[in-house]
Structures are given as C-alpha cells and as structure tokens.
Design goal:
Elements: H1 36-40, H2 49-68, H3 72-94, H4 128-146, H5 148-161
Length: about 160
C-alpha cells in the first residue's frame, strides 16, 4: 500500500499503532513517523566521510536494535534514514548547496518525495567528499535491505497489515 500522507503524524505514535504504518516507496515518511524520527534523526549526518561513517554505523546499530525487538516499523525507518543519507549526500555531491530543484516546494507537498513539477537545476562538478559520504551510506543501506531478519519481518508485516 502507498504511504499515507493524510494521517495526523503529529499525534500518532506508530510504535503503539504499527498497523497504521505503510512502507511506501523509498524514503516516504522518513521525517514524519514518530517516535522513530525523533530517535534516529539526531544521529543522521553526512557532512564528511568520517561523520557519515559514524552516523551510518549508529543508525545501522539502531536498525539492528529495532529488529531484535521485533519492531519492524523502527527497522524500516532506520533503513529509510540510511537511504536518505545516501540520496542527500549524492544530492550535495551533484549540486553545490544541495538544491536539486528550482523554486520552493508547494505548501501542500511539503514532506513528500518528488520534484512536484519543479525544474531540475544543472549539476555542479562532483564533490568527492560528499560522494564518499554517499558511498558509505549506500553500503549500510544495501546491508540493511538484505538483512535476513529485516526481509522476514517485512514479509510478516506486509502479510499482516498489507503491502
């Protein structure tokens, strides 16, 4: 099932109500779903390869902790933060200042993925430091996606609550 952006995320605790969570595509909901956003976001950094390494290892540790607790929603959110570490570091590697699209995000689309009809800005020369930070997150993200416990818990979650 697609990610449901219409839920009142300010007042939802998806640890207590996991049946309301939808995996969606990619990073959908990564900055909305509580309490996980508040638990993971403080550790999410990608400024340099050293910072990215520490951040990705910490987030991967949280990912493993959520799996051990059979908290699939938390594990999936940690996976999304690893993915977002890769995509944001790549964005900064490709676009100086990190802006990929022209103009502001429309008010009704804030928090959602996508360009929303905005024009893509031209690429800058690649920033090798950000490219390495992205590669560090990519390795951890790839590791998370194929972790046997994650694969099993995702299948169980989707069988129970729908895709």
């Amino acid at each position: 099932m697609p990610f449901n952006y219409d839920q009142d995320f300010r007042h939802l605790n998806l640890r207590e109500q996991p049946e309301l969570y939808r995996v969606g595509k990619g990073e959908q909901g990564v900055l909305l779903v509580e309490p996980y956003k508040s638990e993971i976001l403080p550790h999410w950094r990608f400024r340099t390869p050293a910072v990215a390494r520490e951040s990705s290892e910490t987030i991967y540790g949280l990912f493993e902790d959520y799996l051990k607790a059979h908290d699939f929603v938390g594990a999936d959110m940690a996976r999304k933060f690893l993915q977002m570490g890769f995509t944001r570091a790549r964005r900064y590697a490709n676009h100086q200042g990190g802006k990929k699209y022209a103009g502001p995000v429309p008010a009704d689309k804030k928090g959602q993925s996508g360009a929303h009809g905005r024009e893509e800005l031209p690429r800058s020369p690649e920033d090798p430091e950000k490219a390495e930070a992205a590669a560090i997150f990519k390795r951890k993200w790839d590791q998370a996606k194929i972790h046997p416990d994650y694969v099993q818990q995702r299948a169980d979650f989707e069988a129970r609550y729908g895709k």
